[in-house]
C-alpha cells in the first residue's frame, strides 16, 4: 500500500554501487559479521521483521558477510537509537530497527533522544503500515465512541512509543478517556498483560502484526478494533474508522498527521551517521534486493508478514519533510503530549 498526505510524499529512487567502489565494499565486508539490533524484546513484530530480513540479506551484500540479530530493548527502541548514533561502530557493520515513532522524537519531545534524525543513514523499511487500537472482548467499550464516555485501561511502554503517544494525543486533542498503564518492556509484554486482564486494550498495534501474530484474535472476535491510525483504511476492515475522521479542526488534523507520519516507514532500519557513502549505498541496495528475493518473500508469506519495500532514500526524504513541519503544528503536538 502507498499513502500520501499534505506535506509528505514518497518518491521512487534507487541506490547504485558499481565499479571499483563495489570491489572495495566487497573487500571490506568479506569475512566480517553485520549485526542487526532490535530495540525490543524477542517475539514482537519488529523482532520478527528483523530476523527474517537477516536470514536473507547477507547474500546480497558485497562480500556476503554473516548477518546476525541481537535484542537491545529499552524505551521502545530509544535506547538503541541513542546507542547507534553515539557509540556504535560507524563502519557499516551495524544497523538496527526501533519503534517507528523514534525518528520524530527529537521533534516532538516525547522521550530523551540524543540523536539528529537527519544525520542517520536510513537503510529502508520492510513495510508501510496502518496501526490499530484494540480492546479485549471483555472490556466495557466496543468502539472508539465508547472511549469518549468510558475509561479504557491500556498497556503502555515508554513515553517515546506510539503505544503511549497515540492515546495521549487522542486524550488531549479529541477528549478520549484512555488510562495508560506504562512500564511494559514492549508490545509482547503489553499484549500479554491485556490477555491476563491486567489491562483492557492496546494502542497502537500494526495490522500486519495483529494478523500474523494473533490471527485468532480477529477470527474468534477476541478483540474489538476501535480505530485505525493511517492515511487510508486497511482494505479488509473498511468499517473501522480512521483517527483522522475524528479531527474536528484543521489544526487538530495537522497535528495528527504529523504524529502518524511514521506509519509510512513502519519498520525502519537505520545505520549510524558517518558510515562511508559507498557502504550505505551497498546496504540500501542489498536491503532492496532482499525484499525482492523469492526465498525472503516465501518465508514472509509463511509467517503472514505483510511486506512492502520503502527505500532508504524515500525514508530519508520523508523525515526531512516531517522536520519541515510548521512550528505551530509541532508546538500543538508537544503541548498535547506534555
Search tags:
5-stranded mixed beta sheet; 2 domains; 39% helix; D-Maltodextrin-Binding Protein, domain 2; disordered N terminus; 338 residues; alpha/beta; 6-stranded mixed beta sheet; globular
Write a concise synopsis of the structure shown:
The chain has 338 residues and is of the alpha/beta class.
Whole-angstrom Rg = 19 Å
Low-confidence stretches: 1-17
The termini sit apart by 33 Å
Write down the CATH class of the largest domain: Alpha Beta
Q: Can you say what the CATH homologous superfamily of the largest domain is?
A: Bordetella uptake gene, domain 1
Order of helices and strands: HEHEHEHEEHEHEHEHHEHEHHEHH
Strand fraction: 15-25%
Task: Describe the overall structure.
The chain is of the alpha/beta class. It has helices at residues 19-29, 45-57, 78-86, 105-108, 144-147, 162-174, 187-196, 207-213, 215-219, 250-260, 277-290, 294-302, 312-322, 327-337, and strands at residues 33-38, 66-71, 94-97, 121-125, 131-136, 152-155, 178-181, 201-206, 223-229, 268-271, 310-311. The chain has a six-stranded mixed β-sheet with strand order 2-1-3-10-4-11, with helices on both faces. It has a five-stranded mixed β-sheet with strand order 7-6-8-5-9. Helix 2 packs antiparallel against helix 12 and helix 10 crosses helix 14 (327-337). The longest helix has 14 residues, at 277-290. 53% of the residues are buried. The model is unreliable at 1-17 (pLDDT under 50).
Layout of secondary structure:
Elements: H1 19-29, E1 33-38, H2 45-57, E2 66-71, H3 78-86, E3 94-97, H4 105-108, E4 121-125, E5 131-136, H5 144-147, E6 152-155, H6 162-174, E7 178-181, H7 187-196, E8 201-206, H8 207-213, H9 215-219, E9 223-229, H10 250-260, E10 268-271, H11 277-290, H12 294-302, E11 310-311, H13 312-322, H14 327-337
Parallel strand pairs: 1-2, 1-3, 6-7, 6-8
Antiparallel strand pairs: 3-10, 4-10, 4-11, 5-8, 5-9
Amino acid at each position: 500500500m502507498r499513502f500520501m498526505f499534505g506535506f509528505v510524499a514518497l518518491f521512487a529512487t534507487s541506490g547504485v554501487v558499481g565499479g571499483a567502489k563495489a570491489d572495495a565494499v566487497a573487500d571490506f565486508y568479506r569475512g566480517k559479521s553485520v549485526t542487526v539490533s532490535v530495540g525490543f524484546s524477542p517475539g514482537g513484530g519488529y523482532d520478527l521483521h528483523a530476523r527474517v530480513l537477516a536470514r536473507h540479506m547477507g547474500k546480497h551484500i558485497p562480500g556476503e558477510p554473516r548477518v546476525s540479530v541481537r535484542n537491545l530493548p529499552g524505551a521502545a527502541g530509544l535506547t538503541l537509537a541513542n546507542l547507534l548514533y553515539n557509540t556504535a561502530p560507524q563502519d557499516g557493520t551495524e544497523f538496527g530497527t526501533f519503534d517507528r515513532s523514534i525518528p520524530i522524537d527529537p521533534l516532538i519531545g516525547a522521550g530523551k533522544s540524543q540523536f539528529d534524525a537527519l544525520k542517520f543513514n536510513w537503510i529502508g523499511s520492510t513495510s508501510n503500515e496502518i496501526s490499530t487500537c484494540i480492546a479485549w472482548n471483555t472490556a466495557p467499550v466496543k468502539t472508539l465512541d465508547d472511549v469518549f464516555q468510558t475509561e479504557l485501561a491500556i498497556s503502555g511502554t515508554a513515553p517515546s512509543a506510539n503505544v503511549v503517544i497515540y492515546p495521549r494525543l487522542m486524550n488531549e486533542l479529541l477528549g478520549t478517556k484512555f488510562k495508560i498503564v506504562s512500564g511494559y518492556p514492549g508490545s509482547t509484554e503489553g499484549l500479554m498483560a491485556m490477555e491476563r486482564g491486567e489491562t483492557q486494550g492496546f494502542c497502537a498495534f500494526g495490522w500486519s502484526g495483529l494478523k500474523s501474530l494473533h490471527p485468532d484474535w480477529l477470527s474468534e472476535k477476541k478483540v474489538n478494533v476501535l480505530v485505525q491510525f493511517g492515511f487510508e483504511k486497511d482494505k479488509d476492515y473498511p468499517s473501522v474508522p480512521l483517527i483522522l475522521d475524528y479531527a474536528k479542526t484543521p489544526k487538530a488534523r495537522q497535528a495528527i498527521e504529523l504524529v502518524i507520519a511514521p506509519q509510512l516507514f513502519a519498520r525502519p532500519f537505520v545505520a549510524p551517521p558517518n558510515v562511508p557513502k559507498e557502504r550505505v549505498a551497498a546496504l540500501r541496495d542489498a536491503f532492496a534486493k532482499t525484499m525482492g528475493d523469492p526465498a525472503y518473500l516465501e518465508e514472509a508469506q509463511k509467517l503472514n508478514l505483510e511486506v512492502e519495500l520503502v527505500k532508504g532514500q524515500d525514508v530519508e526524504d520523508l523525515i526531512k519533510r516531517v522536520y519541515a513541519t510548521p512550528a505551530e503544528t509541532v508546538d500543538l503536538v508537544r503541548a498535547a503530549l506534555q
